[in-house]
Every structure is written in C-alpha cells, then in structure tokens.
Amino acid sequence: xxxxxxxxxxxxxxxxxxxxxxxxxxxxxxxxxxxxxxxxxxxxxxxxxxxxxxxxxxxxxxxxxxxxxxxxxxxxxxxxxxxxxxxxxxxxxxxx
Length: 96
Fold this sequence. Notes:
A hairpin with a 4-residue loop joins β1 and β2 (about 15-20). The chain starts with a strand and ends in an 11-residue tail after the last helix. It has helices at about 35-40, 40-55, 75-85, and strands at about 5-10, 15-20, 25-30, 65-70. The longest helix has 16 residues, at about 40-55. About 30% of the residues lie in helices and about 30% in strands. It is globular, with a radius of gyration of 12 Å. The relative contact order is 0.23.
C-alpha cells in the first residue's frame, strides 16, 4: 500500500501525519522545533525525524511514496535545499 507523509514544522514543534492512498489516517507524530533559523540544523533535523518515526510507527518507510514538508522560514532555494537535507537518513522519497 502506497502512503503519503505530511510534515508541518515551526519554531516550537513539528507535526507529522501518515495517510494511505484512500486518505485514511494511519499515524500521527510530534517532535520538537524544526525552524533551523531558530534552533540550528541538527536540532531541527531531530524534531523532524522524531515526528516522522512516531507517525510511521511500524509502517515501512519505504512504502511512503510522497512527502510534503512545510517548514517555517523556508523562503529561498538554499532554504529548500537545507530542508531537503534534513530528511536525509530517513529513507524517504527524494532524500538520501
């Protein structure tokens, strides 16, 4: 079953939701702040990773087909690249 992951991150917290292809909610997660301008890249990465892992639970991350990452403070191409890099290590589509 293919799934999609939505991540909403800001200066105080990060929320994540996993949905299947029919739109059913499979899991939710929360993590710390993910605005790297406020907390730095490593702490922001940790907030995102915690939220994703909670939302996915036992679901294989390899089954995630699409990811939407909405982060506060991302306004330039360089910001978008930093945001994409913060997904590295999770095995999500579009990340290493």
